[in-house]
Write a structure and sequence with these properties.
Strand order of the largest sheet: 3-2-1-4-5-6
Largest sheet: 6 strands, parallel
Structural class: alpha/beta
Number of helices: 12
Number of strands: 12
Radius of gyration: 26 Å
Distance between the termini: 63 Å
Shape: elongated
Helix content: 40-55%
Length: 359
C-alpha cells in the first residue's frame, strides 16, 4: 500500500453536470467511470464535490452513495456568487496540498480554464495533477497544463447517445440516384482518416523513443515512454486507437517494425528501442536511389523539394516514423551512414545532396 498513489478528487460539479447534459445528448453525469479510471492509477482517499446542491437533488443522492463529501455553495445572491464554488475548491485543494504530504495526486474534474493557475501551483508543489472534463466544454488551456487529462466522454462506461439526425420535410421529388454517392465515399474517408491517425501515432512514438535515447543515453522502458507521451500530450490514451493497454500498442508497433521490444528490463516493463536496421536502412537506400537518379540529370540535388521526390517513389514515406524530427535530420543520418553526401551551399542557399562517389 505504501507504493500506491494517494489521490484527492475534486469535482467542479456544475461544470461537469451541465457540460454532460448539454453536449452529450442529455447524459446525466455518472461518477462511476471516473472512479474506475482512477482506481487504475491509485487509491482515492479524498472525494469532494462543489455546487449549489439545491439544483442537483438527484445527483446528490448518487454522489452520497459514492462516499463523496458534498460542499454546498448556495447561490442566493445571484451572479455575484457564481465563482464561490470555484474559489472554495481552490482554497481546499491548496490547504490539502500543504497539510497532507501523503497525497501525491490531485484530480480536478472540470473543464474551466480558471483552474489552470491551481494546476500550475500544485505541480510546483511536486503534486501530480490529472484533469477530467467533457471534451466540448473543456478549455484548450487546461489539458496541456496537467500531467494527464481524461475526457469524460471517452471513459469506459460512458455511453453517449448518437447524435439524432434532424428530421427533414418529405422531399417532393424522390431522387435516389445521388444518395448512394455519400455512403460510398464515407467509408473511404473514414479509412483514410484512420490511416492518417495511425501514421501520426507511429510518428509520435518513434520520435519520442529517439528523443529519449538521445537525451538520456540509457535504455527506454515502456513505463518511461508512456510517461513521456503523457507529458507531450496529457490527453494521450492508447484506447483512442483501439488498444486495450499500452503494451498491446507497443506489440502492434513492434510487429510493424516501428520499434523493438526487449525483456531485459523488469518483467512487464520491456525496453523499447528503434530498429537499428530494416526500415531505416531501406529508407537510406531509397534516398540514395532518388539522389542518384536526380543527380544524373541535374547534378547535385537540393534538399528543398527532395522529400516530394521520395514520396513519388514511396507515397507512405515519413522520416518521423523512423524517429527523426525533420527531413534534414534524416538526410544527415543518411550522410553519416555513407548513403549520400550532404553539404551546405552558400550559392544555392540550401543543402545539396550528392552520391558518395561525387562527394
Amino acid at each position: 500500500m505504501d507504493q500506491e498513489e494517494r489521490i484527492a478528487l475534486f469535482l467542479d460539479y456544475e461544470n461537469l453536470a451541465i457540460g454532460a447534459r448539454e453536449h452529450l445528448g442529455g447524459v446525466t453525469f455518472d461518477l462511476r467511470p471516473v472512479t474506475d479510471a482512477l482506481a487504475e492509477r491509485g487509491r482515492v482517499v479524498v472525494r469532494r464535490a462543489y455546487a449549489d446542491w439545491s439544483y442537483f437533488d438527484e445527483d446528490r443522492r448518487m454522489l452520497t452513495r459514492s462516499h463523496v463529501e458534498l460542499i454546498d455553495m448556495p447561490q442566493r445572491m445571484g451572479a455575484s456568487r457564481k465563482n464561490a464554488a470555484d474559489i472554495k475548491m481552490v482554497v481546499d485543494a491548496l490547504e490539502l496540498a500543504f497539510e497532507r504530504d501523503y497525497i501525491s495526486t490531485f484530480v480536478l474534474c472540470t473543464g474551466d480554464s480558471d483552474f489552470t493557475p491551481l494546476v500550475h501551483k500544485l505541480r510546483e508543489l511536486n503534486k501530480r495533477v490529472i484533469g477530467v472534463g467533457v471534451e466540448r466544454t473543456t478549455s484548450a488551456m487546461l489539458p496541456p497544463a496537467c500531467d494527464e487529462f481524461l475526457y469524460y466522454d471517452r471513459l469506459d462506461g460512458v455511453e453517449v447517445p448518437p447524435a439524432r439526425a434532424r428530421r427533414s420535410r418529405p422531399a417532393p421529388e424522390p431522387e435516389p440516384a445521388p444518395q448512394p454517392v455519400a455512403p460510398e465515399a464515407a467509408p473511404d474517408a473514414a479509412a483514410d482518416a484512420a490511416a492518417r491517425d495511425m501514421d501520426a501515432l507511429t510518428a509520435l512514438v518513434a520520435q519520442t523513443v529517439a528523443g529519449l535515447q538521445r537525451s538520456s543515453g540509457a535504455a527506454v522502458t515502456s513505463s518511461t515512454l508512456k510517461r513521456t507521451l503523457l507529458r507531450k500530450d496529457p490527453t494521450f490514451n492508447e484506447a483512442d486507437w483501439g488498444f486495450r493497454a499500452f503494451g498491446e500498442l507497443l506489440r502492434h508497433l513492434a510487429e510493424h517494425n516501428v520499434v523493438e521490444l526487449s525483456d531485459r528490463a523488469a518483467k512487464g516493463d520491456p525496453e523499447v528501442g528503434l530498429p537499428e536496421h530494416g526500415d531505416r536502412e531501406t529508407a537510406f537506400a531509397l534516398l540514395r536511389a532518388v539522389v542518384v537518379d536526380l543527380a544524373g540529370r541535374d547534378g547535385p540535388v537540393a534538399l528543398s523539394g527532395l522529400k516530394n521526390q521520395l514520396r513519388k517513389v514511396a507515397p507512405d514515406f515519413s522520416e518521423k516514423k523512423l524517429g527523426y524530427r525533420s527531413f534534414l535530420q534524416f538526410c544527415k543520418a543518411a550522410a553519416t551512414s555513407g548513403a549520400v553526401g550532404l553539404a551546405w551551399s552558400p550559392d544555392a542557399d540550401d543543402y545539396l545532396l550528392t552520391t558518395p562517389a561525387e562527394g
